[in-house]
């Protein structure tokens, strides 16, 4: 539960929670109505007519359920267009959802997970549970009574679309579903022929305006650059993503000779090769900017800006804003997003580093990672590893698996998330398979900034593992019994902001010197069922604002020092079986 008062009471306040949710929903609807009245002239150049055409196809005044398909090449502006349609109209519906990157999310987490997320948002039920492929009758009835607006962005499989949309009559009268795809055949199976809209390239005038907004921060070229600007626009054939990135790349470059060299490169690349145009802009970045670009493309994907900043040195952080200025990423409400065309470009650049994965800087394909981890003394160039575990495959590693990876900064070993409320059999299966280290682990890089390892199989970390730059340490459902031996200097972990030990059922205690983690903001101990006590020193963690003790069934009491946590905003005691009501006087 959360509190921002000087006294925190752990009790049920369902009526207040419901009231707050209703107020937030009402405010959101009013904001959406305000957004619907105007277009962002910079962001939506050339899109007003697209939006109006699509809204016409949606026939909002008619009854029945309509599916409208949006078709076009990557980078042409499909996502931006449908997102605008959604924002302008979602307040007219009783339930709504705009789900982006269906293709990628289905690949990572499974189409069942995607469906559950979509229906949970439409029904405004964060705890929605769907077991199996068939929707329960109760959920069907709720959906049939709701007039909904659903956007499914970037669908590439007709079977996925059929599964996500459901059978006829699933949604209430007046519902509208918008689907975007690069493959017209995906849409033809679900949409009437006259309900498929092709997003075309921008005409010359709109293309020049969009390019000018990014190259000159105004809607037309500055004096002396009109001819060159028109040549650039002509070379890239009115593709919005390329116009934005090239414009950002040329911003503040006030040398005619430089522009002429760029035009020559564009002509060499050929007008239709989007990736070559974008790769040209990548090579204009400095080393820090390239590093951040590849980290996002090959490891983080979407992430929060403040978190990404924490994984970088102070002098590197300005590189994030530089990437945004060049339109290689977008930052909206502190969240970083990279277009999937650019994500693929980043991975292509890394694959081109070397045919041998042991000589590449970033790894994300399971077979490549297995090869590197099972070949002793390799991986000196590896900076990031993102390994999605296979629930049917086991991997036994030697203690020296990570030796030689002195430059490893980012490590994530994980399963795709379960559907909500997984069975005990599913949980136990994941604990049986995965990575095994029967002879222990000798080494992990001290350069690590981010470490996430689901079901880490050992009782503790390597004794010489002290990553001074580590920002996030997440070890859910691991076999850890202790983090480090008592007496080891935790104060070396001066950057650690998040510590997640959720589901570590063998963990019996935390180090007494945990108070030395001065930067710690979030501590998750949920499901640590053998944790019997917390050190009274925990009250010294002045930066701690989130503490999760849910499911810590052996905890008999809380240390009085919790009241000294000046920054504490969230304290979760769900399942705290020995404590029904607890009052804590918080420092103000």
UniProtKB/TrEMBL annotation:
Gene Ontology MF terms in the entry: ADP binding
Source organism phylogeny: Eukaryota, Viridiplantae, Streptophyta, Embryophyta, Tracheophyta
Chain ranges of the NB-ARC domain: 51-218
Keyword NAD: no
Domain Disease resistance protein Roq1-like winged-helix: 287-351
Residue ranges of every copy of the Zer-1-like leucine-rich repeats region domain listed in the record: 490-554
Name of this chain's protein: Uncharacterized protein
Tagged with keyword Repeat: yes
Pfam families: LRR_3 (PF07725), LRR_Zer-1 (PF25013), NB-ARC (PF00931), WHD_ROQ1 (PF23282)
InterPro entries: Apaf_helical (IPR042197), Disease_R_plants (IPR044974), Leu-rich_rpt_3 (IPR011713), LRR_dom_sf (IPR032675), LRR_Zer-1 (IPR056845), NB-ARC (IPR002182), P-loop_NTPase (IPR027417), WH_DNA-bd_sf (IPR036390)
């Amino acid at each position: 539960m959360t509190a921002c008062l000087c006294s925190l009471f752990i009790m049920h306040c369902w009526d207040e929670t419901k009231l707050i949710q209703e107020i937030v929903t009402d405010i959101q609807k009013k904001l959406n109505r305000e957004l619907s009245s105007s277009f962002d002239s910079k962001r939506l150049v050339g899109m007003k007519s697209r939006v109006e055409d699509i809204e016409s196809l949606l026939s909002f005044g008619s009854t029945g359920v309509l599916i409208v398909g949006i078709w076009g090449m990557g980078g042409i502006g499909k996502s931006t267009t449908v997102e605008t349609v959604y924002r302008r109209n979602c307040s007219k519906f009783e339930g709504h959802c705009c789900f982006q990157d269906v293709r990628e999310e289905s690949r990572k987490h499974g189409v069942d997970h995607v469906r559950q997320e979509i229906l949970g948002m439409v029904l405004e039920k964060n705890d929605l549970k769907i077991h199996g492929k068939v929707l329960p009758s109760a959920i069907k009835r709720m959906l049939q009574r709701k007039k909904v607006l659903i956007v499914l962005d970037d669908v590439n499989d007709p079977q996925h679309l059929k599964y996500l949309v459901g059978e006829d009559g699933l949604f209430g009268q007046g519902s509208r579903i918008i689907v975007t795809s690069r493959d017209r055949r995906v849409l033809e199976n679900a949409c009437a022929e006259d309900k498929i809209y092709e997003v075309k390239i921008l005409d010359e005038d709109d293309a020049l305006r969009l390019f000018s907004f990014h190259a000159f921060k105004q809607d037309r070229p500055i004096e002396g650059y009109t001819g060159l600007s028109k040549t650039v626009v002509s070379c890239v054939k009115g593709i919005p993503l390329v116009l934005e990135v090239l414009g950002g790349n040329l911003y503040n470059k006030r040398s005619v000779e430089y522009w002429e060299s760029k035009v020559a490169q564009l002509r060499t690349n050929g007008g239709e090769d989007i990736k070559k145009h974008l790769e040209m802009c990548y090579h204009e970045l400095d080393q820090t900017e390239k590093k951040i670009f590849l980290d996002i493309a090959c490891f983080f994907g979407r992430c929060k800006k403040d978190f990404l900043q924490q994984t970088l040195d102070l002098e590197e952080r300005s590189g994030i804003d530089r990437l945004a200025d060049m339109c290689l990423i977008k930052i909206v409400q502190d969240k970083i997003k990279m277009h999937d065309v650019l994500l693929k470009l980043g991975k292509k650049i890394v694959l081109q580093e070397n045919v041998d994965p042991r000589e590449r800087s970033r790894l994300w394909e399971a077979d490549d990672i297995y090869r590197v981890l099972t070949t002793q003394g390799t991986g000196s160039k590896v900076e990031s590893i993102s390994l999605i575990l296979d629930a049917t495959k086991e991997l036994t590693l030697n203690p020296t698996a990570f030796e030689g990876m002195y430059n490893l900064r980012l490590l994530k070993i994980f399963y795709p998330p379960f559907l909500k409320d997984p069975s005990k059999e599913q949980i136990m299966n994941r604990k049986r398979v995965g990575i095994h280290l029967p002879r222990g682990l000798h080494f992990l890089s001290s350069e690590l900034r981010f470490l996430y390892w689901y079901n880490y199989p050992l009782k503790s970390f390597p004794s010489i593992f002290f990553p001074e730059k580590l920002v996030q340490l997440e070890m859910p459902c691991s076999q850890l019994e202790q983090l480090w031996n008592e007496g080891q200097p935790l104060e070396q972990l001066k950057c650690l902001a998040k510590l997640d030990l959720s589901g570590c059922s063998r963990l019996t205690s935390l180090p007494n010197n945990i108070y030395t983690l001065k930067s710690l903001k979030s501590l998750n101990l949920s499901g640590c069922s053998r944790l019997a006590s917390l050190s009274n020193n925990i009250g010294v963690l002045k930066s701690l604002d989130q503490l999760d003790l849910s499911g810590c069934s052996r905890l008999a009491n809380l240390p009085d020092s919790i009241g000294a946590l000046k920054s504490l905003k969230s304290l979760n005691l769900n399942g705290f079986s020995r404590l029904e009501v607890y009052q804590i006087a918080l420092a103000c």
